[in-house]
């Protein structure tokens, strides 16, 4: 028996002006998992959410729920609920009335409404706030009320459209823990939309990285972070140093005029590549002990590490995270191992690549 609760097959969404918001989207969401759609503004994340919710009609392709096609099923008849970015709470109703709204509309008995509202508020740790007015709540409390209202109807899937974006940094992190814990407690499928990479990495079982209406890569947070499929994903997920090079042979890559052992294979000899090294994988050493040398430009203290900006002789910018400070304008070595490098095929034209490479060698 399939564990898939939501599936999109070959979905396109094109608007009347010719703009294509979604291009050949095919994804599967399993029961009880936390999924995230991650990408910049305009990448198509919310359009996917709206297609699943029934708020927008796809141009072609199928939207399936529990194995059944739901393209023509109205939004209010789908077994899922949505938490919006602005929470969409009713200001003229108190907390209890907001949470109970869906049950009242479906003519649920009063005693059952009271019990289910109590249970939903307890789940979001706001059971003592039932009589409060919405205007008396903080942003974090309003967000929890929106979630309580969404889960009270016992949906099989909960869609969350950037629900943490209006919160301050500390509260946002606190709510990440609470949302993840709530999802595990409920055991239902969450589909979360965000442009915040750290948020996606922290909360998700699986991430779909999007850009320009397409899913570029899908995988668990560790795979997405450690094995980005292309330049966009490497640059968008966390911080990266991305340097052009050539794959000399299996497990051997050349860049900045030197050849290094790496852990990647399966490419053509001398194939143009991009070398990705995360800032936290670089170790500052003395110049003679480093595999490459860079000149420190600036550094910022980030609390538990120093963020150091440096440049090599060819003008490439290097971002380094170190627990130790160094001196501005000093020349230091950078050490890294074979597994600290991730090699990606170069996606731009070879001519453009060669012109960049030649400029480094001059």
TrEMBL record:
InterPro entries: AAA+_ATPase, ABC_SmlMolc_Importer, ABC_transporter-like_ATP-bd, ABC_transporter-like_CS, Mo/tungstate-bd_C_term_dom, P-loop_NTPase, PotA-like, PotA_ATP-bd. PROSITE patterns: ABC_TRANSPORTER_1 (PS00211), ABC_TRANSPORTER_2 (PS50893). Residues 6-237 form the ABC transporter domain. Pfam families: ABC_tran, TOBE_2. Its EC number is 7.6.2.11. Keywords: ATP-binding, Cell membrane, Membrane, Nucleotide-binding, Translocase, Transport. GO terms for cellular component: ATP-binding cassette (ABC) transporter complex. It catalyses: ATP + H2O + polyamine-[polyamine-binding protein]Side 1 = ADP + phosphate + polyamineSide 2 + [polyamine-binding protein]Side 1. It is an enzyme of class 7 (translocase). One of its GO terms (molecular function) is ATP binding. Belongs to the ABC transporter superfamily. Spermidine/putrescine importer (TC 3.A.1.11.1) family. The complex is composed of two ATP-binding proteins (PotA), two transmembrane proteins (PotB and PotC) and a solute-binding protein (PotD). Part of the ABC transporter complex PotABCD involved in spermidine/putrescine import. Responsible for energy coupling to the transport system. This is Spermidine/putrescine import ATP-binding protein PotA. It comes from Lentilactobacillus kisonensis DSM 19906 = JCM 15041.
């Amino acid at each position: 028996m399939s564990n898939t609760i939501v599936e999109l097959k070959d979905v396109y969404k094109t608007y009347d002006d010719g703009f294509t918001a979604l291009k050949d989207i095919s994804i599967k969401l399993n029961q009880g998992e936390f999924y995230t759609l991650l990408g910049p503004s305009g990448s198509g994340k919310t359009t996917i959410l709206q297609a699943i919710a029934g708020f927008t009609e796809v141009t072609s392709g199928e939207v399936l729920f529990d194995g059944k096609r739901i393209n023509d099923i109205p939004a209010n008849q789908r077994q899922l609920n949505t938490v919006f970015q602005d929470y969409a709470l009713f200001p003229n109703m108190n907390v209890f009335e907001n949470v109970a709204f869906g049950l009242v509309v479906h003519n649920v008995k009063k005693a059952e409404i009271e019990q289910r509202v109590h249970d939903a508020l307890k789940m979001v740790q706001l059971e003592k706030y039932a009589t409060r007015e919405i205007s008396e709540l903080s942003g974090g409390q309003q967000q929890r009320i929106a979630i309580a209202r969404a889960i009270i109807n016992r949906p099989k899937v909960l869609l969350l459209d950037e629900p943490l974006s209006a919160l301050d940094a500390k509260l946002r992190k606190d709510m990440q823990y609470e949302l993840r814990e709530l999802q595990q407690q409920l055991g239902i499928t969450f589909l979360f939309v965000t442009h915040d990479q750290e948020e996606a990495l922290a909360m998700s079982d699986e991430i779909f990285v999007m850009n320009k209406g397409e899913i570029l890569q899908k995988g668990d947070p560790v795979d997405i972070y450690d094995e980005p499929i292309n330049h966009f994903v490497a640059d968008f997920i966390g911080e990266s140093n991305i340097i052009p090079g050539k794959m000399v042979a299996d497990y051997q890559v050349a860049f900045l005029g030197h050849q290094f052992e790496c852990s990647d294979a399966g490419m053509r000899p001398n194939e143009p590549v991009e070398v990705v090294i995360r800032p936290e994988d670089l170790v500052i050493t003395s110049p003679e002990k480093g595999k490459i040398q860079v000149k420190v430009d600036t550094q910022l203290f980030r609390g538990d590490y120093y963020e150091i900006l440096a440049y090599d002789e060819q003008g490439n910018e290097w971002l380094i995270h170190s627990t130790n400070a160094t001196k501005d304008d000093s020349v230091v070595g950078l050490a890294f191992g074979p597994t600290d490098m991730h090699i990606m095929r170069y996606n731009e034209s070879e001519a453009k690549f060669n012109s960049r490479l030649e400029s480094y060698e001059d």
